[in-house]
């Protein structure tokens, strides 16, 4: 389904909403997600299940195991940096909407894409140049479950803490961005609702004044007609006045019927807020990964 979603983004990229920076960054994140998922399942999950451990994984050349370890770390950095830029994109669109499109024009998105793509390899470059040795090790003889371990435990510990600090800073920025987004959205919605209520109140007051004026004019007209002629009787039917009164009453009932749940539905209908919620969900799952890095053991565990 994820691959179909990415294909859809490419196929409909020419349409107006999908040309935005948000969907471009979402596509980039999707590519990294698919690559990371493929690497994790091929090089970590399958051997952890005991599948083809003796036949394939214990026989893999050292350079291939080294590549797998570096690739998974690099792709994780790419993912988190993309999530960070998505949060900043939503912050710009909702909290600072003035000149948002200019700030996130196509040339800027291209520069951001380059930064995201080279961030992962730059992060693992010490691991590449230091020629650290990784290998598969059996962790359960009965199930033949295996995982990748590093011979250089000090280097692994350095990577663990540097990644934890970097990802924590990125997660904090994302969290503060989404707090600002949701706070700003709610505040603007409340102010807009107050302005609408004030406008309707003024309209009701104006309509009431019109009704009173029309009624007064009708009474003056009827009294004048009676004084001029004593034979006929005056029949006053202020139908327009009644229609205006009914409309005012309907508006008043409609306003009172707008409960808090209705206001929430109206708020949720805003497209920019929906995209922000999607970004927040992505950030939440990336934050779980950050917590996993903190709790990672450096002895005989998946790297």
From TrEMBL:
InterPro entries: 7TM_GPCR_serpentine_rcpt_Srv (IPR019426). SUPFAM superfamilies: Family A G protein-coupled receptor-like (SSF81321). Pfam families: 7TM_GPCR_Srv. Keywords: Membrane, Transmembrane, Transmembrane helix. It comes from the Eukaryota. The chain crosses the membrane at residues 21-44, 64-88, 108-124, 161-186, 275-298. The keyword Transmembrane applies. This is Uncharacterized protein.
């Amino acid at each position: 389904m994820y691959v179909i979603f990415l294909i859809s983004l490419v196929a409909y990229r020419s349409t107006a909403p999908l040309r935005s920076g948000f969907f471009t960054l979402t596509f980039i994140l999707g590519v990294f997600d698919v690559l990371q998922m493929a690497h994790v399942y091929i090089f970590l999950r399958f051997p952890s299940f005991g599948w083809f451990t003796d036949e394939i994984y214990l026989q893999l050349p050292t350079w291939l195991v080294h590549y797998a370890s570096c690739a998974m770390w690099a792709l994780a950095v790419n993912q988190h940096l993309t999530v960070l830029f998505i949060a900043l994109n939503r912050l710009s669109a909702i909290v600072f909407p003035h000149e948002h499109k200019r700030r996130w024009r196509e040339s800027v998105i291209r520069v951001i894409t380059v930064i995201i793509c080279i961030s992962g390899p730059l992060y693992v470059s010490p691991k590449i140049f230091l020629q650290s040795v990784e290998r598969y090790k059996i962790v359960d003889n009965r199930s033949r479950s295996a995982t990748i371990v590093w011979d250089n435990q000090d280097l692994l510990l350095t990577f663990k803490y540097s990644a934890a600090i970097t990802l924590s800073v990125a997660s904090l920025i994302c969290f503060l961005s989404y707090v600002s987004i949701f706070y700003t959205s709610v505040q603007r919605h409340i102010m807009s609702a107050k302005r609408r209520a004030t406008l309707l109140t003024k309209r009701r007051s104006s309509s009431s004044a019109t009704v009173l004026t029309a009624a007064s004019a009708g009474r003056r007209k009827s009294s004048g007609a009676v004084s001029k002629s004593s034979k006929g009787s005056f029949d006053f039917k202020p139908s327009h006045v009644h229609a205006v009164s009914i409309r005012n009453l309907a508006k008043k009932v409609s306003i009172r019927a707008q409960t808090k749940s209705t206001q929430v539905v109206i708020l949720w209908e805003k497209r920019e807020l929906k995209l922000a919620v999607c970004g927040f969900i992505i950030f939440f799952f990336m934050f779980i990964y950050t917590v996993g890095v903190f709790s990672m053991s450096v002895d005989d565990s998946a790297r």
